[in-house]
Amino acid sequence: CMLTPLLQRDSCDAAMTGVEEARSPALLRSISDDSLPPLRSFPLAFAAVVTCGTLNNFAYCIISGAAQNLARRFGVPNQVTLLTTAMNFASLTGAMISTRLLVRHRFRPRVLLVLSMTALSYIGVIFALSLPGGFGFAVACIFSCFGAMAQVFGEITNLAFLKALPSELIGGWGAGTGIAGILE
């Protein structure tokens, strides 16, 4: 469990089991606040969720914020919208993939997928900087799409995980995504 230090030991297992087994909307609505696991420290849990939200959205914000510089670096300044459009389509595709396929898997593999895709995105864009002109820009666009999909996968995965915790923590996730945009 990712927030194990902040939850009581047996509560974490119960929360993960409840979320993994809860597939129907009716069952999800039946989970009351009384059945949620007790937190050892709400401020620490809130800080952890803010940090996760920031890290999840940071790659998308950094790459889309650098789109103009990347296009200029590759000598294709009129192609800025291509990068941001490709990232937006990748996000939409990621949402469809996640809601159809990834929700069937446990949280840990999904989180590892998000981390791997985010790292691949950064490494790929850095690699693309060594390539010439339009080809380098196309490679940067492709790897940027990995970051966009990772952001969506992370969003869906982590918000589903937060369903097993007090609802006030969702505000921490939103704050974290906003902080990522500010830090870019």
Outline the structure in words:
The model is unreliable at 1-5 and 7-33 (pLDDT under 50). The longest helix has 30 residues, at 133-162. The chain has helices at 9-21, 25-29, 42-65, 67-73, 80-100, 107-128, 133-162, 169-183. The chain has 184 residues and is mainly alpha-helical. It has 8 helices and no strands. Helices cover 74% and strands 0% of the residues.
Which features would summarize this protein structure in a list?
elongated; disordered N terminus; 8 helices; single chain; mainly alpha
Q: Report the structural category.
A: mainly alpha
- Number of continuous helical runs: 8
Assembly state here? single chain
Helix fraction, binned, reads: over 70%
Distance between the termini: 29 Å
Q: Give Rg in angstroms.
A: 18 Å
Q: Low-confidence spans: pLDDT under 50, at least 5 residues?
A: 1-5, 7-33
What's the overall average pLDDT, rounded? 80
What characterizes the major β-sheet? none
Helix/strand layout:
Elements: H1 9-21, H2 25-29, H3 42-65, H4 67-73, H5 80-100, H6 107-128, H7 133-162, H8 169-183
Helix pairs in contact: 3-7, 3-8, 4-5, 5-7, 6-7
Short description:
By secondary structure, the protein is mainly α.
